[in-house]
Amino acid sequence: MKRNFKMTIKYDGTRYQGWESQPGVDMTIQGKIEKVLSRMIEEERSDDVNRDEKGSTDKSGGKNADEAGVKLMASGRTDAGVHALGQVANVHLDTTMSAADIQSYMNQYLPEDIAIEDLKDASERFHARYNALGKTYRYTCYYGDSKPVFDRKYVTVLDQHPDIKKMRQAAEYLIGTHDFKSFCANPRMKKSTVRCVDSIEIEKDGPYIRMYFHGNGFLQNMVRILSGTLLEVGFGNMTPQRVGEILEAKDRKLAGPTAKAQGLCLMKVDY
């Protein structure tokens, strides 16, 4: 009988084409994890067959993820180049292995830029996406005299220093339940674009500027568009009040640019 497992995943998204598996695309986070899990299941099945057949070594043709019945369900899809410290996914597996052994196996065979931080048995009905109550994202910028040599893949380098006070003023207009259509990359989205943003915190730490967004869910590229818009305010290209007007207009063309993917990290998913 299949068991449901909940896993917390961290990854460096630099060289991947996002989370979601895509036909003909090998470099996705989901694809890499499903490939390792499929291999694990096939090895376990082969071992069972070998024991039943008293030493037979036939391990004919490993199956792909779909054939092996391995399908990860994530809390949400991260785009190409986006990182995660707390992505959550669940998967149903036909295995007798313990959660600890599964986690150990996965970390042994996954690429070095993907790691399973936690893995445990979950209730049969647990779903990483539908049961999620909220998410926290962090967007990190850098403005300094020297280059961020060692964390250049995880920050967006700015060519001018933004006004943090004005950015915080602008962020106040975004707190609460609103229609965030102006901050959605998909203009043809048929589902509701109403979301609740509980908090936006903007911190200055030396040359680093970090924006933390917490809400019940986010639209396609929403956090990056919000970040790009707040930076426009910081650069003096729009007033804090203008952000409220853009929100009410429900027009993506009025908002700021989509900030670069490399500065974004999914920090935590609430359940």
TrEMBL record:
Role, per record: Formation of pseudouridine at positions 38, 39 and 40 in the anticodon stem and loop of transfer RNAs.
**E.C. number, please?**
5.4.99.12
Q: What species is given as this protein's source?
A: Butyrivibrio fibrisolvens DSM 3071
Q: Which residues form the active site?
A: D79 (nucleophile)
Q: Which reaction does it catalyse?
A: uridine(38/39/40) in tRNA = pseudouridine(38/39/40) in tRNA
- Which gene carries the instructions for this protein? truA
SUPFAM superfamilies referenced in this protein's UniProt entry, alphabetically: Pseudouridine synthase (SSF55120)
Write the lineage as a comma-separated list: Bacteria, Bacillati, Bacillota, Clostridia, Lachnospirales
Q: Which residues form the Pseudouridine synthase I TruA alpha/beta domain?
A: 9-131, 170-271
Key words, A-Z:
Isomerase, tRNA processing
The source's superkingdom equals Bacteria
Tell me which residues bind substrate.
Answer: Y137
**Which family does this protein fall into?**
Belongs to the tRNA pseudouridine synthase TruA family.
Supply the name of the protein: tRNA pseudouridine synthase A
